[in-house]
Amino acid sequence: MEPRIQYAKTSDGVSIAFATMGKGALPLVTLTSFLPNLELGLRIPGMRSAYERLSRNRMVVEYDGRGRGLSERNVSSFTLDELVLDLAAVVDHLKIETFALIALLNAGPPAITYAVAHPERVSRLVLWNSYAQGADYWEQPRQKAFRAMREADWQTYSETLSSLFFGGREFADQIREGATPEVYKAFMDATRGFDVTDLLPQVRCPTLVLHAPVMAMAYLDISKALATRIPGARLAVVEGNFGAVAEAVDEFLSEEPEEAATGAAPQVLSGLVTILFTDVEGSTAMTQRLGDTKARELLREHERITRECLRAHGGSEVKTMGDGFMASFGSAVKALECAIAIQRAFEERNASLPAHPEPVEGRAEHHALLKVRIGLNAGEPIAEDDPDGRGDLFGTAVIRAARIAALAQGGEILAANVVRELAEGKGFMFGDRGEVALRGFDDPVRLFEVRWREDA
Fold this sequence. Notes:
Layout: E1 6-9, E2 15-21, E3 28-31, H1 38-43, H2 45-54, E4 60-63, H3 80-93, E5 99-104, H4 108-117, E6 122-128, H5 134-138, H6 141-152, H7 154-166, H8 172-178, H9 181-191, E7 207-211, H10 220-229, E8 234-237, H11 242-253, H12 257-260, E9 273-280, H13 283-290, H14 292-312, E10 316-320, E11 324-329, H15 332-351, E12 372-379, E13 382-385, E14 391-394, H16 396-407, E15 413-416, H17 417-422, E16 430-436, E17 445-450
Helix pairs in contact: 2-11, 3-4, 6-7, 7-8, 13-14, 14-15
């Protein structure tokens, strides 16, 4: 049965087309980018099957924003506040009190804005290949190339989009029918000014940041930055298209509330804090090689080992980001001891694997190595609690720790000079890596490798 197209009127008088599929206790409202439109989305087999999966246990609501698809087309203004009005019109028309939100690409900022303004209504948030600041997003090389193509040849641009996202050029005509090139340009130009960075710490609902490289218009760093700044958010890198994304979203929405909130509430510390980041080296390639299910088994092994070490050394888990952790310590010594314990635990695990293992069905951990990189920094981050007592840390000290971890190799621990100085005389061995420029920082940071192996 085809979904029935209905209309809602925004507070500024724009007619918004929407459709619903399925029934259930917790509705899911989907916000797509300017393309594809509602009608096209229901024709594309991959998108259609994704909607059908998500609507098995819940009502799924999709709508066309102003200026495109089946909604009112005589629109030329696309401010952030106006796009939020489109969402508000649909959920108010349906009298939905509480719902989950999923936002794709440019729909992220309006979804974040609504979630912060109405925390009592948005129960969970999924941000898919999205961003907080439009200027950063549009400076990505791939985006620059697509923008140049769009401005040069609308037909070639639509055919390229159809091939990239929908597996062929056969939907290019529908893309062109969904919006005029002039209106599409007006929308895209407006998104360059979107910036909800200051709202990210105010997001109170459990949040999943999804990065699907095959359909991404920007690099993973954009998604990681989004997950880092939202309290309790997790990052998931999904290898695959609409079906894989639907599976990840369905799993997130089906979790119990305490699971979606990432488990036990971490202790948010004040004053001088040592921040530790972990990251599984080559996690994206690993997922491509093993597939989603087996790769997820390996990441669960990473989570188990890391959490055991955090508990043993007094670390507070701030958040997990799919293939990595952010943790805090009140002591630089404890943080270093924990980092060393993590590396030794993974070294022991990897050494226990057979040299030429036979694959065992359902046991990916028997035939794949896990190499973790770790970065440490210390400072006085901004600490914030949400109403449920979950906490998060923000600020320069946190961002610098994440940048340091990204520079490490698998099996390495890199620490900022401040961490080395705090642990001076405590028996740790360091190798000087010199002054290093970190992306986004004017002043270089002196880094040290923590020599953790027994033969160091």
